[in-house]
Each structure stands twice: as C-alpha cells, then as structure tokens.
Amino acid sequence: MINGIEEKAFETIEGGVCAAQGFQANGLNCGLNKDKNKNDLGLVVSDVLCNAAAVYTTNKVKGAPLLVTKRHLTATGGRIRGFIANSKNANTCNADGVEKAEMMCQLAAQALGVDAIEIVPASTGVIGQVLPIEPIAAHIDELAAGLAAENHGKAANAIMTTDTVKKEVAVSFEVGGKVCKIGGMAKGSGMIHPNMATTLNFITTDAAISSEMLQKALSAVVKVTYNCLSVDGDTSTNDCVLLMANGLAGNTEITDEGEDFQSFQSALYFVMRSMTRMLAKDGEGATKLIECECAGAPDLDTAIIVAKSVIRSPLFKCAVFGEDANWGRILCAIGYAEADFDIDKVDVDIASAGGRIAVCRNGAGVDFSEDEAKVVLAEDEIRIDIDLHQGESSAMAWGCDLTYDYVKINGDYRT
Predict the structure, then answer these.
(1) 124 is catalytic
(2) Tens digits of per-residue pLDDT, 309-346?
(3) Strand 119-123 relative to strand 79-86, pairing
(4) CB–CB of 298/211 below 8 Å?
C-alpha cells in the first residue's frame, strides 16, 4: 500500500487517451511550430459528457489556459466533453491570454457542435509570447474532421516540446464485474518540479465515477507520483493534470470509498506512475533515470521529502551522469532534507540491472569495489535505496542525471 493505494500489476494496452470507450483524438501542425514534421495542435473529445477533475501548478504565475480550465470546470460542475491543446507557446504572462484561451475553446466547440464551456484549453511552450490565434482558427475544422480513436498518437505528439518521445500508457481493469479502461498521455522534459501537478497530463477512463471521487483519487495519486518527480527543480507555470470519466463501461457509478474505488485508484496509480517514470527518463539531456526509494520512515511525508531531496540534488545528478559512486552526495542530500530523523541510523544502497552495492551503513561509509560500482552505474536506470530504520512508511521519487546537454538545450530554448 502507498498512502492507502494498493499497488497492482497491470498489463498495458494500446490506445493512450483513446483506449477507453468513446474517446477520439487528433493532432496536426497548424503553423505554431515551424517544423512541419511536428504536430503543435491537439484535440481529444468524448462522445458524451464526462465527469472531470484536475490539479494545477502552485506557481503564483499561472498560464491563462489554467485560469480558463478552472472557470469552465467550476461553471459546469466538473462536466466537460474534451480539451484542446497547443505546444510551442505557453500563452502565459500575456495581457490577452485569457481571451485567446477562451477563443481556442470556442473554435473547438463550434467545430464539434457543442457548448464552449464544455471544452477546456491547455498550452505549453515559451512563456511571455503572444499566442497567435489565426493558425489555430485556420486548422480547427481539419483537426475536428480527423478525430478518431486511432489518432491518439497524433494528439500525444502535438503536446511535445523538448520531449524526445511520446508518453502514452493505458490499462484495463474490472469494476463491479465490468471491464473498464484508463489511459493517458503526458508531456514534459524540462522545467519539471511539480507542486500539485506537473507538465501537461491528460487521463481518460470509461469507468463511471463521480467528479467528487475522481478528484479524491487524483489528488491522492498525484501526491505519490507526479509530486515525487523532479528534473531540474523548476515548477512550471502551466502544469496541469486533467482526468475525465465518461461512464461508457457501464459499471455502477463509484460514489464512495469502497472496493470499486480502490480498484479504480490502483489502475489510476499504475498509469500515473508509469507516465511519471517516462517523464523522468526523458528529462532534458538525460542519459539515466534515477529512482529513489526511502523506506523505514516515521511517516509518508518524511519518506517523500527524503527521496525527493536525493533525486533533486544537482551534485548527485552530476555524479550519476559521470558514473561516479560519490555516495557522500546522497548523504548530504538526505541530511538537508527538511524532516526529522536520526541520520546515524541510515543505510544506503545503489543498484541497477548491473548489480547492487552497499555504500552506507548507520550513517557511515562502508568499503565497496569501485569497479563493481562502475558496472552498476553504467546502466541507464539507477536505483537508490535508503532505509531510515525509524518507522514503517516508504515512498519513491523519480529524476534523472544532469548533463551537458541540459545546459545546451536551455541556453537557447527561446531562440
């Protein structure tokens, strides 16, 4: 169990945000991105109205699309049909930002023949540049006409910025004797240090579940997945996770915290944890995924704080890039974590597909083979296991190494 969420293994299925019944998607290049091989505008809609829930960045600077999304979800009581999203331009810190975000919804709604309040917007890209609405208006009919379940990948491609790969995952699960599906797509490579949410993430399900229970499940799972992710320590202005449920699976609607809710939440956790790992592994310039588990903590929050402190450490991230078993940097990061525990009881191991080495016992270093350490750190997924020996709680956090390419990418991101 993680924060009351039961971990289960699921077989992944194809379809991303369109794996669930009744969802269609499309993506194309409308001209925001000069590279015509990359999509920059995406649309995902349900055949019927959905219950919806969302979490947003806690950055004081919030993109206009977030303000409009909040407005629409409040006005409809969490009942929407879909979303429209663009890349290359964040539509943030612009005087006309809210107007442009509302126009995106209106354009999509007109093309779909629905009410604009039932569509929510999302944008990602450069901050502080005015979003041109003309390219979106010119291609909206083509975008809507191409909606199909098999075009989920085109939508996932449309929200990519510095991402090197699309991020999609979906699973099936059972609720009340009915087979349900849940799937999602995510984007994010840099400016990732979530507080409440991270990057742009869209999750759909055909399970019948109330908006209230959707929000309860989403908030709980965000805490132990996306909020345990950090690429560079920067919290974005446009972070959002949107979860939509259209109920077409036909199960009895989930309205309380019974067995059906636990089944739904476990499937949601699997999808969100999978996308969290994808986001960490595709961090800007990254060559290695770092996964850190803190066990033996007095409570969940302490475990999260310690694990995140390690994967956030620039010095340790550099050591992982250099394949240097500089375990002192791990202890340093544990030591400045803002939580109460006895450092003299802490054990640390470094592990990967190449093996496992113990580097610290009871807060002090132990002898290990540098040659063995090199073999362990040569892999592209590195695991740090910490045991505080001061309780029963545990948590995981995900990050990546810090490389020369991260600086190159962000040195001229805007130009």
Answers:
(1) no
(2) 999 999 999 999 999 999 999 999 999 999 999 999 99
(3) parallel
(4) no
Can you point out the beta strands (E) in 94-151?
Answer: 119-123
Which 3 state secondary structure label does DSSP give 167?
strand
**Structural domains for the chain:** 16-281 (3.60.70.12), 289-411 (3.10.20.340)
Among the listed residues 69, 124, 162, 198, the single catalytic one is: 198
**Residue type for position 200:** L
> What is the pTM (predicted TM-score) of this model?
0.91
Residues of 260-280 as b/e, b for ≥16 C-beta within 10 angstroms?
bbbbbbbbbbbbbbbbbbbbb
SS3 183: strand
| Conformation bin of residue 98: beta by default, left when phi > 0, alpha when psi is -120 to 50 | alpha
Q: In DSSP terms, which residues pair with 209 in a beta bridge?
A: 254
d(CA 188, CA 283): 7
Q: Which residues contact 108 (CB under 8 A, 6 or more apart)?
A: 43, 82, 84, 116, 119, 140, 143, 144
- The token duo for 396 is 């995981």
Helix (H) or strand (E) holding 313: none
Helix (H) or strand (E) holding 272: helix 259-281
